[in-house]
Amino acid sequence: MLISPTHRRYFMTPREEPLPLYIESIGYNGNQENVLRTAGYPCYHWLQTVKGAGEFHFAGSTVVLGEGSGILLPPNEPHEYVPSLGEWETLYITFGGSQCPAITEALGLGEAALHQWDKGSPLENYGREVLGSISSDQDLSGLEASADMYRFLILLKKHGMTGSRSSISHAVERLAPLIAFMDQHYADPDIGLEQMAAVPGITPRHLNTLFKQSFGMTAYSYFILLRIRKSKEWMTGNSKLTVKETAARVGFRDASHFVATFRRIEGVTPEQFRTLYL
């Protein structure tokens, strides 16, 4: 619904059977006014600055919401926001769904937080693109909007920065040479954490921090998963390879260790896995 040339707001049609994730409302405000919600908003609430800046008060703290930043709040989080530099242009999304708490928790987005991103990031214009798509399309089922919302949360997880933490996209970019190194040397049983840390030129501890931020696991755990993935490619590509030969080709010195690791990760033995593809 068009409110004015500087204010657009759309409410999505509710469903009898709510989607796991859905947009309740989305809008743009070219002249954001003061907002005080002592009891918060009943849905998850995203607010980002398009132009200008505002002060956002939540959880006993005050942050400046300038360009390249946004706030994500869980339901019923008391908050207040006011313009701080003349006219403040904002874009907001409210959303919910039966699986929304699980999805936001899984992505590490369940708590109220300020998120920032680099200029040119996909986050910069994605909300406006969704707003434009909704305004020009009759998505009566809400399915497209649901997909858009999930994509937004993934982008926020990947490109958003909170506190002093860099974004996942930055970490992955820094780790790209090491990922290539792992792919080239997964068959070498002598590769350990020290050798891996030497590729980007950082300490093993810092390396594990980057991997946990990017992939939710340590660097060596990632390397083991890569070896197991490669073993599946070897086994399904050459039915004559023995388990012992496969183990050696993916960096395991001991076949029994390979079998135990494979079973722990995949839930079946290497031989049982191979029968699925015969």
UniProtKB/TrEMBL annotation:
Residues 176-276 form the HTH araC/xylS-type domain. InterPro entries: AraC-bd (IPR003313), AraC_XylS_family_regulators (IPR050204), Homeodomain-like_sf (IPR009057), HTH-like (IPR037923), HTH_AraC (IPR018060), HTH_AraC-typ_CS (IPR018062), Tscrpt_reg_AraC-type_HTH (IPR020449). Transmembrane segments: none annotated. The keyword DNA-binding applies. Keywords: Activator, DNA-binding, Transcription, Transcription regulation. PROSITE patterns: HTH_ARAC_FAMILY_1 (PS00041), HTH_ARAC_FAMILY_2 (PS01124). It holds the Pfam family HTH_18. It comes from the Bacteria. This is AraC family transcriptional regulator.
